[in-house]
Amino acid sequence: MDIQSGKYAWMVKIGEKGQFVIPKEARELFQLHPGDEILVLGDKEKGIAILPKGKQQDYIKKIFKDIDE
Prior knowledge:
With 69 residues, the protein is an alpha+beta fold. Helix content is 32%, strand content 25%. The strands form 2 sheets. Strands 1-2 form a two-stranded antiparallel ribbon. A two-stranded antiparallel ribbon has the order 3-4. Strand 3 and strand 4 form a beta hairpin. It is globular.
């Protein structure tokens, strides 16, 4: 579902084992393939964010920079 230019939202269902499938459109958009690693971040108030491996380094650097300040 395209919310606004470049912003998307998808509904997924959590299975009995706590797993969910990343929608095909999202996998294609972010070039996610079987065996790829993703980073899952959680904030009790803001929710969960999933980052593809190519974006992880930038976000990790930003997180640690913000912590150090």
